[in-house]
Specification:
Blueprint: H1 6-28, H2 32-53, H3 62-85
């Protein structure tokens, strides 16, 4: 855990907790699609934290690729979920 400062760890952990709470709140408000769309971004954050937890071990380099893919997937699912929330126009 020497690769990140204590302050940086605080931000990483707080962000994961905050994102988890946001997912729960979305689900409680009945926005289940948005809550599901947020999950890939959470997986991405957890992959990054795991890699840093093990001092950026070269043997875990695959976590970086996993994190990048889940960031891409998460951005796409969030964009789609937000688009689905737009009100539809009726003529």
């Amino acid at each position: 855990m020497h690769s990140l400062s204590l302050g940086t760890w605080w931000i990483h952990v707080a962000s994961v907790i905050e994102w988890s709470l946001a997912i729960v709140l979305m689900q409680r408000r009945g926005l289940n699609g948005m809550a599901l769309a947020m999950l890939p971004a959470l997986v991405s954050a957890m992959a990054a934290c795991t890699w840093h937890l093990f001092d950026n071990a070269e043997s875990l380099r695959g976590l970086v690729t996993l994190q990048a893919w889940f960031t891409l997937i998460g951005n796409c699912t969030l964009a789609f979920a937000a688009w689905k929330l737009l009100p539809t126009k009726t003529a």
